[in-house]
Amino acid sequence: MSQPPGERSFPLPSQVPTVPGAEGWQEMYPYFSRFQPEDDHRFWFYNSMHFPEAVPAFDSITSEIPYTAIGANTARLFSFPTTMGIEYRIVNGRVYITANPVVDEAEQAERLEHFQERAGHYYSHWDRLYAEWQQRIDALIAEIEAIEVPRLGELEDLAVITEARGVASNHFLRENFHRCIDLYSKMWHHHTEFLMLGYGAYVVFFEFCTTAFPEIGDQTVARMVAGMDVTMYRPDDELKKLAALAVELGLGDLFAEGGHPGTVLSSLRERGDAGARWLEALEAAKNPWFNVSVGDGFYHHHLSWADDLSVPFSALSGYVEQVANGEDLRRPTGRLAEERDRIAAEYRALLQSEEEKAAFDQMLGLCRQVFPYIESHKFYCEHWFTTRFFQKIRAFGQLLAERGVLEQADDVFHLRHVEVEDALADVMLAWASGGRELGARHWQPIVARRKQIVDALAQWSPPPALGPVPEALNDPAVRMLWGVTDETIETWLGDQELDEHTVRGNAASPGVVEGTARVLMNVNEIGRIREGEILVCPVTAPSWGPVFGKIAAAVSDIGGTMSHAAIVAREYGMPAVVGTGKATSVIKTGDRVRVDGDRGIVTVVG
């Protein structure tokens, strides 16, 4: 489809060519995730916050199910007045999204009545309902942890006969795999049950502030709810305790920067009682706090700390050195809380009427009540539960490899989840009949080809957006989470005059600092970060907390003032500029850069 004359536009979805070497990528994803001809009329932006890499076939479930749950909660359960859900499409392995707004004022008014009743119930009983949510998510984690992949022996265990169970083990291959998928779906419904309401409370307060105080910046509003203690920081706190214990036990010399975890662990085993005590403390911290992914919980290969110790151990060296030097490793939560209250008091004093002040107090109070959920839920949902989910799917892959259907366990992630079910049915039939599985000749060539496709797709540089430029794009949630505003779009289009050594973004966390840049394009590279460097990346996740303990500032291509990268930077008290759009293409590792978190400007100075 051609671009309408005179209309400003990013490339249209239909104009995006297939990446050379990735022909046939479409077969890796469900039909409803692919762009349709009518999608050329709509604006889409690349969700590199959650999907910074090409998506393998199985991992496409991490867009399908979350957007199903988000839309159900915003559109159908709580009836958000101005928005329905988010639609997504995949092109060349990358996830693009668009929000479906409610523009008719009469419909908005009708939906608002429902929202006030439904959301009001949750806001009025937040603490009790949140406690009940925690019980539900704990139960879901326990349930997925208990799922087993049946072992198919020569004969069933005699107990199946003596207890007259009446169901053979091969049945449970499909049932237990289904349970994994169903529990993942249920987790995401619970995930967004409170999350969208949390964002909703902040959006209302944000809009009140921008109306009452036209000159107020996004960052200033965000700082009024900073300094909260949330569960997502607990893994990093556990690392700091381990660092302190290492110094106390005289083991600090073993944690040199750049040391391989395996080497460090071997050395600890040779240090007698002191080494044994430290290793015991490590094991105690691992469950559950090392069930945190190096990513944001959307890719099977973003392993947890427990699966890959390189990330936590890369932080331990710096923490051990800081403890040995007598430095305080605690986040500046107290200072942030004082600053939070000071800013709120100053702006409250500018309001003219008692009614306005009462409304301000109510909205800010609700924001502070709901904010901890916005970060804390991530540990239980995207990290602990999702780590277990991928581990269970990998175990099914191991069974398929043992039965000769796949070459290795991780090949299962190059099949769509409905294809995995077919492969399991092949095993179920072969075991039952005494025949042999037929899947090797069918699936192994498909897996080999898809690996080549994913490798080819990894070389693609996706445009930041697709489709015609909207007349206005000021959706508060899109602005705060992804940092996509009218100004962002102008920058993407290259309409703003920018020095070739300067990038602009959202001022996410205050302060100005200069340092050496470390550009990381992949979360699996974060072990390369060195003390005092400035992190430049497409996007960060809250699980990068230990890295924030080492760096001087953070810069990202994507993100708004309430993105997780922005929140983490504020909690660690360091400058951050997010949503630059192109920092990773302008800045190179080793560049001397100045990060101005007050103005949202990053400059290469040498």
Automatic annotation (TrEMBL):
<feature type="domain" description="PEP-utilising enzyme mobile">
    <location>
        <begin position="530"/>
        <end position="600"/>
    </location>
</feature>
<dbReference type="Pfam" id="PF00391">
    <property type="entry name" value="PEP-utilizers"/>
</dbReference>
<dbReference type="InterPro" id="IPR036637">
    <property type="entry name" value="Phosphohistidine_dom_sf"/>
</dbReference>
<dbReference type="GO" id="GO:0016772">
    <property type="term" value="F:transferase activity, transferring phosphorus-containing groups"/>
</dbReference>
<protein>
    <submittedName>
        <fullName>PEP-utilizing protein mobile subunit</fullName>
    </submittedName>
</protein>
<dbReference type="InterPro" id="IPR008279">
    <property type="entry name" value="PEP-util_enz_mobile_dom"/>
</dbReference>
<dbReference type="InterPro" id="IPR051549">
    <property type="entry name" value="PEP_Utilizing_Enz"/>
</dbReference>
